[in-house]
Amino acid sequence: AAAYHGHIRAVKLLLRHHADINCSRESALGFGSALHSAAVEGHLEIVEALLAGGADIDLVCGIRGTALQAAAKGGHIQLIKYMLQKGA
């Protein structure tokens, strides 16, 4: 939920405490991993932090696809460009 809602401080705290950021459980919001949640909402700063913390940029979450696809669906051009530069 922190990634989806753009709470960077909470995301960084979770990263410091070694949270499983590649967990792709379907949540109440339905976006899979933290990276997918941030991407669908266009939270570039959070995507940067998650990737720096080891998030799998190529993780596929069921029918939702990859985080890049989630960003594209949301029309988040800056985020799409960033993720492509990072190898998505």
Automatic annotation (TrEMBL):
The protein's organism comes out as Glonium stellatum
ANK repeat locations: 33-62, 63-88
Q: What name appears for this protein in its UniProt entry?
A: Ankyrin
Gene3D superfamilies hit by this protein = Ankyrin repeat-containing domain
Q: Which PANTHER family match?
A: ANKYRIN REPEAT AND PROTEIN KINASE DOMAIN-CONTAINING PROTEIN, ANKYRIN REPEAT-CONTAINING PROTEIN-RELATED
* Keywords for the protein's UniProt record, in alphabetical order: ANK repeat, Repeat
